[in-house]
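One-letter codes give the sequence; the fold follows as tokens. An example follows:
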Amino acid sequence: MAFFGPLRTALFVPGNRPDRVDKAVNAGADAVIIDLEDAVPLSHKEETRPQVREKIIQHRDKKLIVRVNSLESGFFPGDLQEVIEKGLGCIIVPKVESAEQIRVIDERLTEVEKGKGLNVATIEVIPLIESAKAVQNVFQILSQKTAPPRIFTAAFGGADYALDLGIELTREGAELNYPRSRIAVACRAAGVEPPLDTPFMIDLKDMEGLKADARRAKQLGFQGKMCIHPNQIEPCHAVFTSTREEILYAQRVVQAFEEAEAKGTAAIQLDGKFIDYAIVERSRRILKSVPPETETSS
């Protein structure tokens, strides 16, 4: 399984709008999610699949994800058969609520990969956590063992979660603190990458609200955010990208600690701050998440 991340942003685009896919891959998001589920009417799903496959082949040098339809929808097997293609890195599977569903997803993906001459686990999986039952079972979902490992991370679907609970999404987002915390903790405990946060849909023109929402998700342990409009990409990148000062300090921490460790010391001070293994590990994670284009030279 190839490592698909890190992802600060993943931009949704309707699968039945090939022209928008072409624009989306050049919009600057870390990944593009071609949507076969909510964005495509039931009557158009089958005819949309070949269009999506064509775009995967055309843009196979880009980081592409397809949101397929759920296991229970009746469209899932056909979606896999059509869109699993060299160049696709990952699928999002909506409405995942149990570990057993991960086993079935892996089994069916393996069959399609083998049938198309791809290595098993070429396609990574992001289960979409979007109901009370899914939030309750998220650790078991993410801990379901497959060989090779299949799950990249989880994504949070806040709109469907709110619908399931009969609550209203607000600009302040307090109603999402619990599911966000549970999902982020489950990802860490299960040993998968930090999760992707729900899109901000309160007001597409409210950039300050978007950034505040992204900061809340980042503080709770999310690596990035799904976006539903290109104008959300830059604000989310600003939140989820470490600053130049943070990167340079992380580099100094790692270097100073490694030098001290080589001399038999495991706890040092740097600029008056206590540095131990936990601080060093956080610094290493910061450096691991730095996008290639980020400038770090002094």
